[in-house]
Design goal:
By secondary structure, the chain is α+β, with helices and mostly antiparallel strands. It has 9 helices and 15 strands. It has a 5-stranded antiparallel sheet. A 4-stranded parallel sheet has the order 2-1-5-6, with helices on both faces.
């Protein structure tokens, strides 16, 4: 079984240890996994057929693990006959926060009240201060702002005038959230992230992390989402309401595992590769 591990070159440099982990585990599972940079990928359309190749003329893989945020690239790979993890549908969903929230309301998933802005800036804030403003396609806690004054609001409106943004109520417990790690239809583990200094709980922004035991109500809520989508490997993030119950926040497509690795001995990479291996074998058996 042959696969590509796809990264932007700059992201690959920052994630070299994670990449090595993938390559080591794939070797032990007899998977021929090769690191491929997006900068070296070329997509062509010839006689009505889409094809993908690299500048190095590497063999076309059976599957790709897409570790870059580019739903269009994933869709092109799939049209060329390459199975992708995560698939293009999940990449498009998770990397558009407005779309994610709209879709999950169909599953009756609780979330904070929010306002979407997809065209002209609004002269006045649509919700009361303080609130959170973020771009629809930001990730990792970036392009997320706590808005407390009219001046801040106007500055951010000007800064993001050409982007789709969300404005949402500040959760009752700012600086605290839970990331649930999911592979396929299975909940693997959950991590509580918290920060005493920032309303954002992201570990990459200096927050702390601890293993979190989901209660039955939380598991059922997460499973409602998981059962509805064809996930590969994602992180589903939740805030807390005033009673300590989950409020959906976002789905992370290109999810990392630094927090999970810090607080547990879960080999998330091997579990992911085993999931892909089984999925590919099952697909072959049905063809």
């Amino acid at each position: 079984m042959r696969g590509w591990l796809i990264y932007d070159r700059s992201d690959a440099e920052r994630n070299s240890a994670f990449i090595d982990w993938f390559l080591e585990e794939s070797h032990s599972l007899n998977i021929d996994l090769q690191l491929v940079y997006t900068e070296n990928l070329q997509v062509t359309l010839h006689n009505g057929q889409v094809s993908v190749h690299t500048k190095e003329k590497q063999h076309i893989p059976d599957f790709s693990i897409v570790r870059t945020i580019d739903p269009l690239l994933t869709a092109q790979l799939e049209q060329a006959g390459i199975a992708c993890f995560n698939n293009a549908e999940i990449a498009a969903l998770a990397n558009d926060k407005i779309k994610t929230h709209l879709e999950l309301t169909k599953l009756d998933i609780p979330m904070v009240n929010m306002h979407f802005q997809t065209n002209a800036p609004l002269p006045q804030p649509p919700i009361a201060f303080p609130f959170v403003l973020k771009t629809s396609n930001g990730r990792g806690g970036k392009e997320v702002h706590l808005v407390e004054t009219e001046a801040q609001y106007q500055d951010l409106q000007n800064h993001y005038a050409d982007q789709s943004i969300l404005m949402q109520q500040l959760a009752p417990t700012p600086g605290k959230d839970v990331r649930v790690f999911v592979i396929g239809k299975e909940i693997i583990a959950a991590v509580l992230r918290s920060s005493e200094r920032d309303f954002r709980a992201n570990y990459s922004l200096g927050g702390s992390a601890s293993l979190y035991a989901l209660n039955l109500e939380e598991k059922l809520l997460v499973q409602r989402i998981v059962d509805h989508y064809d996930f590969g490997f994602v992180g589903i993030d939740f805030l807390f309401d005033e009673n300590g119950s989950f409020l959906f926040n976002e789905i992370e497509d290109v999810v990392g595992s630094r927090t999970l690795s810090k607080v547990s001995d879960v080999n998330i990479v091997r579990l992911y590769l085993e999931f892909i291996q089984k999925r590919m074998e099952d697909t072959r058996c049905t063809q």
